[in-house]
Amino acid sequence: MAKVLVIVPFPMDDDNLSKRRAQLNAVRLGDGIDFDFKPVRIAPANYVSQQDSVLADIGILEAGLQAEKDGYDAVCIDTMSDSGMSALRSVLDIPVIGPGRHAMLAALMLGEKFSILAMWDRWRHLYTKTLAELGLSHKCASLRSAGLQPNNQSLLAGKEEEFFPALYEAAMKCVEVDGADVIILGSTTMHEAHAYLAERLPVPIINPGPLTYRLADAAIKLKLSHARSSYPAPSHIAAEKLAAMGDIAARLAGGSK
């Protein structure tokens, strides 16, 4: 049985974690593979600044550092920012899949240009960073936001009647005004809107979280992983320091309740 660790980028209780785990319902992977969802201990309140990006990288690195030793065959990162992906690739030999860049690359298998549909404008820097790293800015028809305040814990629960039509309206502008051939959901927190949008949009729409699960499955079966020349191993893995930081963050979070 292959095992995949899905790192969820915020601390959360079991109820909210189940909302993340529900992404598995969108893809049929068959027998022979299992997924464990693990929330981080170190995280920003949201991903809206450079400070947040640093905390996110550290938190996801700390959460996934022992994945290979714990018997996992691959790691998926549950955020379009791809936070911690490069750092984890430097310390792990198993595949590490981030949804941001992989969704963009998958979109180019389906069309000439794609748009990224976000909840709000403050996530824009996450996409422009990845587009610049991949050299794909010219392939991005637009970055559009529906102007909605996200909730990283409860996701879209209870807001469907308000949020789904607003996302649809923004997505149609991506197609009719911007010329997108493919739409990418701008966050794994938006996965609950995928079925609604897929039934109504005239173009394909990529659900980035389930895409990473399929890619992890393929990487395991094909015995593929990242190139060490692109992700060189550190001279020393700071496991103890990272674990200590995680312990402190967990204590501080517990004291704030």
UniProtKB/TrEMBL annotation:
<dbReference type="GO" id="GO:0047653">
    <property type="term" value="F:allantoin racemase activity"/>
</dbReference>
<keyword id="KW-0413">Isomerase</keyword>
<dbReference type="InterPro" id="IPR015942">
    <property type="entry name" value="Asp/Glu/hydantoin_racemase"/>
</dbReference>
<dbReference type="InterPro" id="IPR052186">
    <property type="entry name" value="Hydantoin_racemase-like"/>
</dbReference>
<protein>
    <submittedName>
        <fullName>Allantoin racemase</fullName>
        <ecNumber>5.1.99.3</ecNumber>
    </submittedName>
</protein>
<dbReference type="InterPro" id="IPR053714">
    <property type="entry name" value="Iso_Racemase_Enz_sf"/>
</dbReference>
<dbReference type="InterPro" id="IPR001920">
    <property type="entry name" value="Asp/Glu_race"/>
</dbReference>
<comment type="similarity">
    <text>Belongs to the HyuE racemase family.</text>
</comment>
<dbReference type="Pfam" id="PF01177">
    <property type="entry name" value="Asp_Glu_race"/>
</dbReference>
